[in-house]
Each structure stands twice: as C-alpha cells, then as structure tokens.
Design a protein that fits this description.
single chain, alpha+beta, 3-stranded antiparallel sheet, two-stranded antiparallel sheet
Length: about 90
Amino acid sequence: MESYKLEQVSSKTMTSKKTGKDFESVGIKIGGEWYNGFGKPGVTDRWQEGMEITGIELYQNGDYKNWRFVRLEDRIDALEKRIAELEKNGIGF
C-alpha cells in the first residue's frame, strides 16, 4: 500500500447538470493532482458516525480522477467473499 501526502482539501456545493440537484464536491490534492469525491451512493466523501476507514482509494473514471474512503467493513466483506471462492474451488485453510 502506498502512502501519500495530502496537500490540500477543497469543498463546495455544486449543482448537477443532469438532475438539477445540489451535491457536495470534496476535492483532495495529492502529488500535485486533484481527485474528486461526491456526496452520492458508491462514491462518498462523507464520514458516517462510527465508520472505521482503512484508507482512501484513488481511481480514474474516464477523464476524471476520483477518491473514496475505504471502509473496514468493505475490506472484511471482500476478504470473506474471496475465502468463500477459494473454499468453493477446493482450496482450504
């Protein structure tokens, strides 16, 4: 896992061109590049009460660079799914 220096954080309310609804856009600057997070399901910049995070995932979607929190629960779910797949294929522990 790589480590990054968080250089800057920017937050602003924007209006969707598609729906006309307001949303919160939170940008983070890492390594001179801006990544955006949006207040919508699946790509979240919101810290929910009691949420345990293990990091921030940086990813590219077309021309856009985005980020999202990596929740502990999501990592556990992914590991449990992988273990089930391995057991299904006859690889036990």
